[in-house]
């Protein structure tokens, strides 16, 4: 989809990657962007900044607590009342706190599901007759394709976002609704993720965050998430999953479950001791896409970055 003249909503747009994504969408030609976040000084500043830079009324703010289901109805109804349509939704709300995991599950899963389901009503192809469909980008995290031992509940909420986006983005839904749904899985994206204060977000502080094992020299920038969002708006097929690692964007092809039923895999006799194969070694560097492929059994290729060569392995 060409972003020109489209209307976008960014949830969680007050700062960081949400704010950058709103700006990048405006740069790419979006006619209006609706910022949604808690009412806080940052979100008023964010709206003002974008209007100053890109023109008054280019950005509007709908502030509130988006745990409240009514806020989503408000968000879509008000956006459509003002701008007649919504074409793009970037779901960037985040709660990173296993220590209060019920709120975390509610924020990361329920809000993503709720807002995506509403797009089937508010952004479907019958409503958006003039456009070529619409797009939802749900934000997960690269670790949720693998594991995150220090933050198991957070990891599971983000894995849920991947499963949900792949399923609701399936052609079965897309053909009916015209709404493309994709998942973006960034790696570590800002310095705060490394601070020791992060320990308070764990279910058990004694587990430790194992940060030294992450082996990330420098977190990627918020603006690379923003550029990835525009790329997905333009090109991502519905139901696709994308990894953004070390400023490089990859298309992730997750193996079909039937591949387990291939020669070379051990059939496990039920009620007998399992036939175990050694677990593959963990990758050493998060920037090493080739070893990422080996461990995760994903097909990945670099879309953008230093090494443009396609690397695809089983
Ligand atoms: N920061 C990283 O290192 C990193 C890495 C990988 C993926 N991500 C993903 O990127 C996305 C954004 O992450 P971030 O670190 O920029 O987060 P952030 O905390 O900076 O932004 C999230 C925004 O959501 C808003 N928000 C949360 N709950 C809300 C609610 N109930 N109502 C209204 N607003 C609410 C917050 O106010 C905040 O502005 C998340 O989906 C996250 O999983 C981040
Ligand atoms: C605060 C922003 C939030 O949205 C995202 C934070 C992301 C990560 C921060 C940190 O807590 C993550 C820890 C993950 C650890 C995962 C595994 C390690 O134990 C070992 C990984 C080794 C490797 O495979 O690179």
Automatic annotation (TrEMBL):
An annotated Gene Ontology molecular function: 15-hydroxyicosatetraenoate dehydrogenase activity
Keyword Transport (UniProt): no
GO cellular component: cytoplasm
PROSITE patterns to which the protein is assigned, alphabetical: ADH_SHORT
Primary role: Catalyzes the NAD-dependent dehydrogenation (oxidation) of a broad array of hydroxylated polyunsaturated fatty acids (mainly eicosanoids and docosanoids, including prostaglandins, lipoxins and resolvins), yielding their corresponding keto (oxo) metabolites. Decreases the levels of the pro-proliferative prostaglandins such as prostaglandin E2 (whose activity is increased in cancer because of an increase in the expression of cyclooxygenase 2) and generates oxo-fatty acid products that can profoundly influence cell function by abrogating pro-inflammatory cytokine expression.
Organism expressing this protein natively: Diploptera punctata (Pacific beetle cockroach)
EC annotation from Swiss-Prot or TrEMBL: 1.1.1.141, 1.1.1.232
Source species, domain of life: Eukaryota
Keywords, alphabetical: Oxidoreductase
Record-linked InterPro entries: NAD(P)-bd_dom_sf, Sc_DH/Rdtase_CS, SDR_fam
Reactions accelerated catalytically: prostaglandin A1 + NAD(+) = 15-oxo-prostaglandin A1 + NADH + H(+); resolvin D2 + NAD(+) = 7-oxoresolvin D2 + NADH + H(+); resolvin D2 + NAD(+) = 16-oxoresolvin D2 + NADH + H(+); 15-oxo-(5S,6R)-dihydroxy-(7E,9E,11Z)-eicosatrienoate + NADH + H(+) = (5S,6R,15S)-trihydroxy-(7E,9E,11Z)-eicosatrienoate + NAD(+)
Protein name: 15-hydroxyprostaglandin dehydrogenase [NAD(+)]
């Amino acid at each position: 989809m060409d972003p020109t003249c489209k209307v976008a909503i960014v949830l969680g747009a007050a700062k960081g990657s949400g704010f950058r994504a709103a700006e990048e969408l405006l740069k790419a030609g979006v006619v209006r962007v609706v910022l949604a976040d808690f009412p806080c000084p940052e979100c008023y500043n964010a709206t003002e900044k974008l209007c100053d830079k890109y023109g008054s009324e280019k950005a509007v703010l709908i502030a509130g607590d988006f745990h409240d289901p009514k806020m989503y109805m408000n968000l879509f109804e008000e956006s459509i009342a003002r701008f007649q349509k919504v074409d793009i939704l970037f779901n960037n709300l985040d709660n990173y706190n296993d220590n209060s995991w019920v709120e975390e599950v509610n924020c990361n899963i329920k809000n993503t599901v709720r807002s995506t389901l509403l797009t089937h009503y508010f952004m479907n192809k019958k409503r958006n007759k003039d456009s070529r469909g619409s797009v939802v980008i749900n934000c997960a995290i690269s670790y949720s394709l693998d594991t995150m031992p220090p933050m198991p509940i957070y990891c599971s909420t983000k894995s849920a976002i991947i499963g949900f986006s792949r399923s609701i983005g399936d052609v079965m839904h897309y053909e009916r609704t015209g709404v493309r749904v994709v998942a973006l899985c960034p790696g570590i994206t800002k310095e705060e993720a490394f601070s020791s204060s992060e320990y308070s977000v764990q279910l058990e502080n004694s587990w430790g965050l194992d940060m030294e094992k992450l082996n990330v020299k420098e977190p990627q920038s918020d603006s690379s998430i923003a550029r990835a969002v525009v790329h997905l708006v333009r090109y991502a097929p519905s139901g696709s999953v994308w990894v953004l690692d070390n400023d490089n964007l990859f298309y992730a092809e997750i193996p079909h479950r039937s591949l387990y039923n291939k020669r070379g895999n051990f059939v496990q006799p039920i009620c007998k001791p399992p036939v175990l194969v050694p677990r593959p070694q963990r990758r050493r560097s998060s920037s090493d896409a080739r070893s990422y492929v080996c461990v995760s059994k994903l097909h990945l290729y670099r879309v953008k970055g230093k090494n443009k060569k396609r690397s695809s392995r089983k």
